[in-house]
Amino acid sequence: MAFEQVCDINDIIPGTGVCALVNGQQVAVFRPSEEEQVFAISNMDPFARSNVLSRGLIAEHKGDLWVASPLKKQRFNLETGACIEDERFNVKSYQARVNNGIVEISA
Q1: Over the stretch 58-97, which tens digit does the pLDDT of each residue have?
Q2: Distance between CA atoms of residues 99 and 50, nearest Å
Q3: Which of 43, 58, 71, 75 is within CB 3.0–4.6 Å of 84 for a Cys-Cys bond?
Q4: Which residues form the Rieske domain (predicted)?
Q5: What percent of the chain has pLDDT over 90?
Q6: What pLDDT shows up at residue 16?
Q7: Could you say which DSSP state residue 83 is in?
Q8: What is the DSSP string of 1-55?
């Protein structure tokens, strides 16, 4: 599996997300804490049909990390892209890692 470098880990403030362009697709990349752990899902909110998920709020629910869309507040799992409110609207998830301080997303 090929990975594409998107940014330095320190470019993402802990507890937030950023948007990266990976193979022409907008990908929301999240850094939930100070640790060098990242998650990546599609940036497209399927309810609002807008590329805004990277601006959502990260929350924990039943031990899993989720992002709430800034528009209509639906929650998406950061590992799987599953939607809590309606599984018909799951989003694509991407494998993400930090390699020598650089965030990489599966291309």
Answers
A1: 999 999 999 999 999 999 999 999 999 999 999 999 999 9
A2: 30
A3: 75
A4: 4-105
A5: 98
A6: 97
A7: B
A8: --EEEEEEGGGS-TTEEEEEEETTEEEEEEE-SSSS--EEEESEETTTTEE-GGG
